[in-house]
Design a protein that fits this description.
By secondary structure, the chain is mostly helical. It has one domain. It contains three helices and no strands. The chain is elongated and about 55 Å long.
């Protein structure tokens, strides 16, 4: 396992230490690793969402699909423009 040095603001370090003291994490390192897992998940979800947007943009909705979306939006009290 590799080790790195990280500079944190005083506020970030207080937050980290408070969560360790509260028992949320067993150590600073565990808390940082948990944060990295969250970052990894967020980045993966963003890439998936971008992939979906690109796929939908490459095949625009048909006129019938647009009418159905408009009707559904009207029922929901919203608009898609």
């Amino acid at each position: 396992m590799s080790q790195i040095a990280v500079r944190l603001t005083d506020g970030e370090l207080r937050l980290l230490d408070a969560e360790v003291a509260a028992g949320t994490f067993s150590s600073r390192a565990e808390a940082v690793r948990a944060g990295l897992r969250l970052l990894e998940r967020d980045l993966r979800e963003r890439r998936i969402a971008a992939s979906y947007r690109a796929a939908y943009a490459s095949v625009p909705p048909s006129e019938e699909e647009t009418r159905m979306l408009d009707a559904a939006a009207a029922l929901a009290g919203a608009t898609f423009a």
